[in-house]
Design a protein that fits this description.
single chain; about 350 residues; alpha/beta; seven-stranded parallel beta sheet; about 20% strand; binds NADP nicotinamide-adenine-dinucleotide phosphate; binds ligand F7E
Length: about 350
């Protein structure tokens, strides 16, 4: 049997790196779109790279989701069987600062890929769109969100992704493309970008454990998120494209936790008991150390968004039934893995300084 060929946009990101590993294990030829950057941006996939002068199933190509020609040429040249569109300006907070760029990449970028597929008459190619729980910004008398829930994005990122969601659905209906949306709730891992809240917390607490005296500044501690593990979720991205019919799926754990709960759980794993005092911008997180109360966490309004999604909890019943979705990680095993890997990193940093 010939190896299947996959194209991944966003291959240098958290999900792209895990998905590439998964597909290589399944004997795919994996092609990734990477952006030109003045410093290295391939840290998460360096372990997969083999000089193409040698035998390899892993190939990287320069391109950009804002550049139609680079996308068209790439798809034309590699003739993929599956396209995973994971590339995005994916930070919700940053999308308020760079709304136009976010729309270009996370919205119109999707159209560029779909248009290339349409021009090239690629009806047998399967397309996965990285949709998001940020489409649901508002709770309408429901405890959890499913594929039928009403969308109400609250950020330029959410609106860009809403465009991508609908254009994927329109190309499926209008041109018969096999195009699917995976509506994924937050998923984390030791490879999560360091400015997302979970990683910011695990990086900080592990350094603190090893003696750092920094303070962690955070925004909304009451926001609730449904946090899963990226490894479990990329497996579902693949399964969505292995179905007979192209459909949209919610992928979530079905549980939700506040940011504060994440901090407490992470602290506990490091034997750091965190106490809280004050409210709103005056809230502080502290520990007892050397018989003294030491403040280690403060709230800074800089990290609040102009518009916040307060509550996210997904309902993954469809994925459980049709994709046999059974995540391997629990909330606690996710936090534990992040803490363990960041503790290792923090120790390495310390060793370098000595
Ligand atoms: P991530 O770590 O931020 O990775 C984003 C990827 O997109 C990176 O490879 C980045 O390249 C690339 N990218 C950014 N701008 C680009 C451009 N102009 N052209 C081409 N590529 C570009 O995101 P992630 O957490 O892996 O998420 C993967 C996808 O799922 C994203 O679309 C995200 O919006 C979506 N999503 C994520 C979650 C989650 O909780 N993680 C949940 C739902 C949906 P550089 O490395 O060069 O920056
Ligand atoms: O924020 C609050 C923040 O930036 C989570 C992206 O992958 O998931 C991600 O978006 C919550 C929010 O993720 C800080 O206000 C408090 O309520 O880790 P985050 P996100 O915004 O949920 C969705 C599903 C995606 O699709 C996105 O691509 O934590 N929060 N204090 C903070 N957040 C950050 N980043 N930094 C803080 O200091």
């Amino acid at each position: 049997m010939k190896n299947k060929i996959a194209l991944i946009t966003g291959i240098t990101g958290q999900d792209g790196s895990y998905l590439a590993e998964l597909l290589l294990k399944k004997k795919y030829k994996v092609h990734g779109l990477i952006r030109k950057s003045s410093s290295f941006n391939t840290k998460r996939i360096d372990h997969l790279y083999i000089d193409p002068h040698n035998r390899t199933n892993f190939f990287l190509h320069y391109g950009d989701l804002t550049d139609s020609n680079s996308i068209y040429n790439l798809i034309h040249n590699i003739k993929p069987n599956e396209i995973y569109n994971l590339g995005a300006q994916s930070h919700v907070g940053v999308s308020f600062e760079n709304p136009e760029y976010t729309a270009e990449v996370s919205g119109i970028g999707t159209l560029r890929v779909l248009e290339a597929m349409r021009f090239l008459k690629m009806k047998n190619v399967k397309f996965y769109q990285a949709s998001t729980s940020e489409l649901f910004g508002e709770k309408y008398n429901e405890k959890s969100f499913n594929e039928q829930s009403k969308f109400h994005p609250k950020s330029p990122y959410g609106v860009a992704k809403l465009y991508s969601y609908w254009i994927t659905s329109v190309y499926r209906e209008a041109y018969g493309l096999f195009a699917c949306n995976g509506i994924l709730f937050n998923h984390e891992s030791p490879r999560r970008g360091e400015t997302f809240v979970t990683r910011k917390i695990t990086r900080f607490l592990t350094r603190r454990k090893l003696g750092s005296n920094e303070i962690l500044y955070l925004g909304n501690l009451n926001a609730k998120r449904d946090w899963g593990h990226a490894k479990d979720y990329v497996e579902m991205q693949w399964r969505i494209l292995q179905q007979k019919k192209s459909e949209d799926y919610v992928i979530a754990t079905g549980a939700t936790h506040t940011v504060r709960e994440f901090i407490v759980a992470a602290g506990k794993l490091l034997n750091l008991k965190i106490y809280w005092s004050g409210k709103g911008l005056k809230e502080r997180g502290y520990i007892h150390e050397d018989n003294r109360k030491k403040v280690i966490i403060k709230v800074d309004k800089k990290y609040f968004r102009p518009n916040e999604v307060d509550y996210l909890r997904g309902n993954p019943i469809k994925a459980q039934k049709k994709l046999n979705f059974k995540p391997k990680y629990s909330f606690l095993s996710l936090v534990k893995e992040m803490i363990n890997e960041d503790l290792f990193l923090a120790q390495e940093e310390l060793n370098k300084k000595r």
